[in-house]
């Protein structure tokens, strides 16, 4: 292989490494930005109002006795099954 061809191959390898690093950086920073969104403010974020989603998105039912009084049997069954209620 001639010296010029060796330099061309080396330059292509370096360029591919930089391009791969740039693409990887964009992918990593994009997912970090999506994960760093702020939590919504307001009563539903801090008081456990209906919805009861934790920051990671999982549903936790409200087992407060005052809240349980007003629930239908169908809603309670969904909560007990670990499902997000879809009935009133």
SSE sequence, one letter per element: HHHH
Helical percentage: 55-70%
Instruction: Estimate what percentage of residues fall within beta strands.
Output: under 5%
Number of extended strands: 0
Separate helix tally: 4
Low-confidence stretches: 42-49
Average pLDDT over all residues: 75
> What characteristic shape results from the CA principal axes?
rod-shaped
Largest sheet composition: none
The span between the termini is 76 Å
**Secondary structure category:** mainly alpha
Radius of gyration: 27 Å
Multimeric state of these chains? single chain
Structure in words:
By secondary structure, this protein is mainly α. It has a domain at 49-88. The protein has helices at 3-35, 43-46, 65-69, 73-80. It starts with a helix and ends in an 8-residue tail after the last helix.
In short:
The protein is built from four helices and no strands. It is mainly α and 88 residues long. The longest helix has 33 residues.
Which secondary structure elements does this structure contain, and how are they paired or packed?
Elements: H1 3-35, H2 43-46, H3 65-69, H4 73-80
């Amino acid at each position: 292989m001639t010296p010029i061809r060796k330099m061309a191959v080396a330059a292509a390898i370096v360029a591919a490494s930089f391009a791969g690093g740039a693409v990887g950086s964009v992918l990593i920073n994009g997912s970090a930005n999506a994960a760093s969104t702020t939590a919504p403010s307001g009563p539903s974020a801090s008081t456990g109002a209906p919805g009861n989603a934790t920051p990671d998105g999982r549903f936790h039912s409200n087992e407060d006795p005052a809240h349980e009084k007003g629930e239908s049997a169908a809603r309670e069954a969904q909560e007990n099954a670990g499902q997000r209620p879809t009935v009133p």
